[in-house]
Amino acid sequence: xxxxxxxxxxxxxxxxxxxxxxxxxxxxxxxxxxxxxxxxxxxxxxxxxxxxxxxxxxxxxxxxxxxxxxxxxxxxxxxxxxxxxxxxxxxxxxxxxxxxxxxxxxxxxxxxxxxxxx
Length: 118
Prior knowledge:
two-stranded antiparallel sheet; mainly alpha; 6 helices; globular; 2 domains
């Protein structure tokens, strides 16, 4: 997804086409409950179980969202917002902090791409 046909990192501003992801967002937009109880939930369970996972439709139906304050970090002129523990945002922030010393261009590219995805 982040590489071009020759295997090189796509340029900043390149268009990323993710039709399945786009369709998923459309389903959530039109019927948010589908993510936990509808066809989308069934598709998620099928995909996860098809790859050796153990999530069930009951797990999806019983899930409760917890809203937490995001972690923030400064990177140059940018502020990075990511999910707090128990999510992996702290690890991602650590990785990006390590990268920023030597790979500023790559860091800014990844930040831009991640923000498009999230």
